[in-house]
Design goal:
The protein has about 375 residues and is of the alpha/beta class. The chain is about 30% helix and about 20% strand. Strands 3-2-1-4-5-6 form a six-stranded parallel β-sheet, sandwiched between helices. The chain has a six-stranded mixed β-sheet with strand order 10-7-11-14-13-12. Helix 4 links the parallel strand 4 and strand 5. The structure holds NADP nicotinamide-adenine-dinucleotide phosphate. NADP nicotinamide-adenine-dinucleotide phosphate (NAP) binds next to helix 1, helix 4 and helix 12.
């Protein structure tokens, strides 16, 4: 795709933390060009630069700074926009994302509103592209001429990426404790008095979400029966910690057999992502990196690896509490890169590369021709 033939895209929730990072990453994207930004109705009609507390280093990308904010309504989009990135809170996302899908747009969502819908792919493109098979039933179930593809929760996406290569050894159970940075809450986030010099061992809904999304992300597509979640039980404890960017998690797991450590490390280092061969612009050179340093991975040192798309693993050791097939290790990934915007962009790139956007447009044209819409 040349610079001139980039696809026009819109960002919903453009003033928030995820929305801003989406604008930053999209400002130099080779396939997509941001032509519309939307937020809540209180900002409708105002220039983006006047309503946004830009928290990223550097200036607002010039093309975005001058755009007027739209309300999150599909009829406000400029003609030609078919791809929409949603960075809305879960509450408003439910109705708004459905309205855009109903209006024929392909929505890539960071919200949890549709993550449990069996017709909505919970996609992490380089570990489970078969989730796109759910789109088959989506149009019939919802009557949408467009579609919704969901990105899983940030922590879960990072954990699932680290666990994907280990499925080859048979996973029996997984216990995780997460240490999640404040950027995961959005802006302005956790009050400084609550988090500075402190650890908060509670993130509302997060533990349930990790337990549920993890087995969905690592499950299988079972033809006409839909998705079958991975069969192993998981347990998660989640804490908010005073780091800014990058989530850290400890993982203890039992495998079905005893595997030498170097074999597990090779499984991470040589992991061939499911996106290989598609040449997607957001795909990192390496999906997983094993960090051979006793004191790493660390959020401050490792979240930026692979432009925030590589998940770093380290400190692999036996876990005697889980028996002779028990292992423990640490994981770090970027909250907003792999965990949100970068993951969503990768999902959209795969969707376009595999021809789903073209198919959607053709189906809509056919329906128009038959007078069905
Ligand atoms: N932060 C992360 O690391 C992260 C990671 C993964 C997933 N997520 C998910 O991504 C989504 C966005 O998170 P965030 O951290 O960016 O949140 P945020 O900073 O609070 O931003 C929310 C955005 O949504 C807009 N908005 C709020 N209510 C709206 C409504 N009723 N109608 C239309 N627009 C509305 C806001 O616009 P105004 O400025 O006009 O109010 C703002 O642009 C959430 O669903 C979150 O769970 C976040």
């Amino acid at each position: 795709m040349t610079q001139d033939s980039r696809l026009p895209v819109a960002v919903l929730g453009a003033t928030g933390m995820v929305g801003q990072y989406a604008i930053a990453r999209l400002s130099h994207h080779p396939w997509f060009e941001v032509v519309a930004l939307a937020a809540s109705e209180r900002h409708e009609g105002s220039p983006y630069k006047a309503c946004c507390s830009w928290w990223l280093p550097g200036d607002i990308p010039p093309a975005a700074a001058e755009l007027s904010l739209l309300a999150c309504k599909p009829d406000q989009l400029p003609t030609g926009v078919q791809l929409v990135f949603s960075a809305l809170p879960a509450g408003p996302a439910r109705e708004i994302e459905a309205a855009f899908a109903q209006a024929g747009k392909a929505v890539f969502s960071n919200a949890r509103a549709y993550r449990l819908d069996p017709t909505v792919p919970l996609l992490a493109a380089d570990i489970n592209p078969w989730q796109l098979s759910a789109l088959e039933g989506q149009r019939a179930a919802h009557g949408w001429t467009g579609s919704i593809v969901a990105q899983a929760n940030c922590t879960t996406t990072i954990l699932a990426t680290a666990l994907a290569p280990l499925q080859a050894f048979g996973i029996r159970r997984v216990l995780t404790v997460t240490y999640q940075s404040v950027s995961g809450v959005g802006y302005p986030g956790v009050p400084s008095l609550a988090i500075l010099g402190n650890v908060v061992p509670f993130i509302r809904g997060e533990e349930e979400c990790v337990q549920q999304d993890l087995v969905t992300l690592l499950g299988e597509w079972d033809g006409g029966h839909g998705f079958r979640p991975a069969a192993f039980p998981t347990s998660a404890l989640c804490a908010r910690v005073p780091t800014v960017r990058g989530h850290l998690a400890s993982v203890s797991l039992e495998l079905e057999r005893c595997v030498v450590h170097e074999q597990l490390i090779a499984a991470w280092e040589r992991y061939v992502p499911e996106t290989v061969g598609w040449e997607l612009p957001s795909a990192p050179r390496q999906t997983l990196a094993y960090v051979r340093d006793d004191a790493r991975p660390q959020p401050a040192l490792d979240w930026q690896t692979g432009n925030g798309m590589t998940v770093s693993v380290g400190r692999l050791q036996p876990c005697p509490a889980l028996g002779e097939n028990g292992y423990s290790f640490w994981v770090v990934g970027d909250t907003l890169g792999r965990g949100a915007v970068g993951g969503s962009l990768l999902n959209a790139e795969l969707f376009v590369a595999r021809g789903f956007l073209r198919e959607m447009e053709e189906a809509r044209e056919l329906a128009l021709h038959r007078g069905e819409t």
